[in-house]
Design a protein that fits this description.
Elements: H1 18-25, E1 31-34, H2 36-39, H3 44-52, E2 59-63, H4 66-71, H5 78-88, E3 95-101, H6 111-120, E4 127-130, H7 135-138, H8 140-151, E5 156-157, E6 160-161, H9 173-181, E7 197-201, H10 206-212, H11 216-225, E8 231-235, H12 242-256
Parallel strand pairs: 1-2, 2-3, 3-4, 4-5, 6-7, 7-8
Helix pairs in contact: 6-8, 11-12
Length: 275
Amino acid sequence: MWTHAPWQGRLLPHPLPPKERLRAYATWCNAVEGNTTFYATPPRSSVESWAAQTAPDFRFVAKLPKPVTHQHRLAGGDDEVRAFLHAIEPLGTRVHALWVQLPASFGPADVGTLARFMRRLPPRYGQAVEVRHRAFFEDARAERELERALAATGAEWVPFDTTALFRNRPVTDAERDAWTRKPRLPRRSRALTGRPIVRYLGRDDTDATVEGWRDWVPTVAGWLREGRSPTVFVHTPDNAEALTLARRFHDEVRALVPEVEPLPEPLPAGPPALF
């Protein structure tokens, strides 16, 4: 996301060399979804650059490659897993969790496969699983079986909350595209570990996005009071205001839990004013 074109020159300085773009993003937010690793495992040299641009406590939630999760369905792909783990190694403690995003066809009958796969991952990394099969949200037995499998390795269940997106008909091109591609599932807000991860998708209208996260603010504040360390990602279909919205969400939570540290001061997007 740190190369997202609509942010360049408006929220982030432009032009910036590739080895400075993540550094600028990290002045806005202290975590990022590693979605790029889903489509292609990056060269290790690129990951070394990511590490150099971020503080040791910056959080990467790194998504496992698509061949592993969607083609092999966790039942193979050993070479791809090894290449992925080798590539992200320079991030060290910045790898907050290995993110296993599963297709909607991966259902209750596959939980055993998931459990075996999770046991093979390096224990030094946190683990997070995103499921999209409706049975896990609507069948209590399937939910319990998945939670037991995740508990065996201390993995978190990542909710992808799209309820705000689907509350009303889409009105922008980006919303119409999201309607065809994003999962329409019940909202889930139960944390399994001390490090819950939330993915929230709102609307291109700021007010609708803020209204849609109203339940998340006290939920995240409650987790913090319990001593948990949540990570929240805020998206909209076009993501044009995702940076400002993420900081607004953080401020709303911080208003309830003042001891939460403020986010960094964003790097100015343009040259300093003369007056």
